[in-house]
Amino acid sequence: MNRPFSPVQIWNSFLKIIPYIGVTFGVVLGTVCLALLLAVGLFCQKQSKKRCLRSLADGYINVIRCTPSIVLLFIVYYGIPKLALGLFGLDLNFSSKIIYVIISLSLLYSATLAEIIRSAYLALGRQQYEAALSIGLTPAQAVRRVMLPQGLVVALPNLGNSLISLFKEGSLAFTIGLIDMMGAGNLIISRNYGAYSLETYLALAAIYWALTLIIEQIFLRLEKHYSKGRRNLNAA
Hints:
Elements: H1 7-17, H2 21-46, H3 51-65, H4 69-88, H5 97-124, H6 126-134, H7 139-169, H8 181-191, H9 197-226, H10 228-235
Helix pairs in contact: 1-9, 2-3, 2-5, 3-5, 4-5, 5-7, 6-7, 7-9, 8-9
């Protein structure tokens, strides 16, 4: 039965979806933390003098970038339990679905993040790192005090764009049954037997739009803040 468009239902859906923002941001935060570790490892491999390590990193990045995110999600969701059962006799079928989402998105995001780190490193050049060592800084101090602050300025625009993409990719989590914002929206539609679908998706679009703008503004402010010293140096 067709129902007339109801603006009130948009607001009702909005109120029911908002409580699940925490789940969505939990996925994003977990993904960023795990992906950062993987990306640093990939970056180190790509900078290695051993050709086999560089080839492995390049192969991983190329395969991951050519794999659709939803396909990777299903491979992780169905593959990990089978491997765990076959190799270790562990039954992971009842483990939390958010774990599989974070793993799959981390694999996806780490490839992008590794390239962002590499491009920032190449933009700075190794000369600055070597100059920092020549004045008595340890390698860790050279990275923390010289390379990282400058590299962050170079990488922030790409980091912001990739984080926004990750935030939107996280909406695929509902396909394996995770109830995040997208999953909550689909539950609302199913409980109404397919009615008010347009209103519910408009509410979802408004939430994603607003949160994306907030993330974008945060990164613009960060970029402006960390670029002050660089602008002053160039002006001098």
